[in-house]
Amino acid sequence: MKTSCRNLFLLFIISFAVIIVFQSCKEDSNPVTQVPDTSYEMKVTFAPIEVKSTDGKVNLMYSIETSNFEKEGYILKDFQVLNSSNGNMLCTINDTNKYLVILKPYTGAIPQNLFYYPLSNAHSTYCFLVGLALDPAQVPQKIKHKLVLLKGNEEKTIEGAETSVSKMEPLVFAAPLKGERFMSANATTLLNNHHPKLSVLYKGITTIPERYCIDWNKVDATGNASHGDESICENWYVFGQDVYSVATGEVVSVTDGMPDQSPVGTKSNDLTMFNGTGNSVTLAVAGGYFTYGHMIKNSIMVKTGQVVTEGQLIGKVGNSGNSDAPHLHIGFHTDFPYYISEGLPYYIDSFEKIGSVGETNNLIWLTNPQQNTNKMVENYGIYNLK
C-alpha cells in the first residue's frame, strides 16, 4: 500500500514537471514584448485661438507634435483631445475625416542642404493638426491630449500638451475684394479644406503656413462660378475682379509674368513651392504679412518697397501658378516668405452674408442678409463685400 502511494506521488511529481517544462517552452516561443521606459513628449507648436466665424461656430485650429515613436516599434492606436476641466472628449482618432489630420514621419533621410522641406508626407515627427468647430458654450478654457501607442500586446499611454485657448481677438482688416456674391473656400475647418494639410519643416520646426488661408471665388444668382465653357478663364465670374489692399503696409515682394493656367484645370510642370502662388504680392502690415496669389499676368499695380493704403488697387484675380481654376488666394502669415511661417486667423471688418453651401453641398440663400462685423468667413459662405 505504501509502495503504491509512493509510486502515485512520484508519477504526480513527474507529470507536474512535464507540464512546467512544456509551459516554459511554450512561453519562450512567444515571449511578451517588454516596453522600454521611453517618454514621447507631446508639445504644442501652434496654440489654439478662439476664432468666431459667420456660421455661429468658434473655430480652433492648432498643432501638436511628438517624436517618431515608430522608430521603437510603436504604432498609433489613438489620439484624443479632451476638455481639461471635465475630461469630456472633444475628438479622437476616429474623427480623422472631420477633426484631425495626422501627418506621419518620413523614414528616409532628409537632405540637410535644402532650404525648405515640403512635408505633406515626409515628417521627422508626428504632427497632429486639430480643427474643432464648436458652439460658443462648448469652448473649453484649456485642452489636454492623450496619445495611445501599441507595441505587440503592450499599450503605452502618454498624457500632456495641455494648452490654454487664447481669447485674444484676431486682427481686423478690410476685405480684399468688393462686390456681390463672393464665395470663400478652404477657410476655417479641416473638413473639405486642403490648406491646413500643407506643412513645412524648416530649421527643425514644422509649420502650417496655409492655416486659415482663403480661396475667394464669385458666383451668380444660381450659385454657379462660371458660365458657358468652364475651361475658359474669362468665363469665370471672379476672373479679372479687382484686388485691394486689406490694410496700410509696405509691399515686400512682387512676382509677375506667369501666364494663367489655360485651359482651366491644367497645370504646367514647372510649379514649385517658390512659384506656386503665381503672380503674387506680399504686403507687410502690423502683425504679420499678407500674401495675395494667382493674379493675372501684368495686372499687378504695385512695386516692391511701395507703401500702399487700405483699399488701394493691387491687381486682378487670375489663374496663374498652382491653381485649378480662377480664384484669389489670400493668407495672413507670421513671417516671409509664407512657406516658413504659421498661418494666422484674421477678421474682416464689415461685410454681409447672403448664403452658404455648407457641409451638405446644398446652396442656401438667406431670406434676410446677415450683417457681420469683425468675424472670419466660413467654408463656402457667400458674401457681399465692401
Structural summary, described in words:
With 386 residues, the protein is mainly beta. It has one helix at residues 2-29; strands spanning 43-46, 51-52, 58-67, 75-83, 89-91, 100-103, 117-118, 125-134, 142-151, 154-164, 172-173, 179-185, 200-202, 205-207, 214-218, 242-244, 249-255, 279-285, 288-295, 307-308, 313-316, 328-333, 343-344, 347-356, 364-375, 381-385. It folds into two domains: 43-164, Immunoglobulin-like; 172-385, Glucose Permease (Domain IIA). A hairpin with a 2-residue loop joins strand 18 and strand 19 (288-295). It is globular, with a radius of gyration of 28 Å.
Index terms:
twelve-stranded mixed sheet; 2 domains; 7% helix; 386 residues; mainly beta; 39% strand; Immunoglobulin-like; disordered N terminus; 26 strands; globular; five-stranded antiparallel sheet; Glucose Permease (Domain IIA)
Please render the helix and strand layout as text:
Layout: H1 2-29, E1 43-46, E2 51-52, E3 58-67, E4 75-83, E5 89-91, E6 100-103, E7 117-118, E8 125-134, E9 142-151, E10 154-164, E11 172-173, E12 179-185, E13 200-202, E14 205-207, E15 214-218, E16 242-244, E17 249-255, E18 279-285, E19 288-295, E20 307-308, E21 313-316, E22 328-333, E23 343-344, E24 347-356, E25 364-375, E26 381-385
Parallel strand pairs: 11-24
Antiparallel strand pairs: 1-3, 2-3, 3-8, 4-5, 4-9, 6-8, 7-13, 9-10, 12-15, 12-26, 13-14, 15-22, 16-21, 17-18, 17-20, 18-19, 19-22, 22-23, 24-25, 24-26
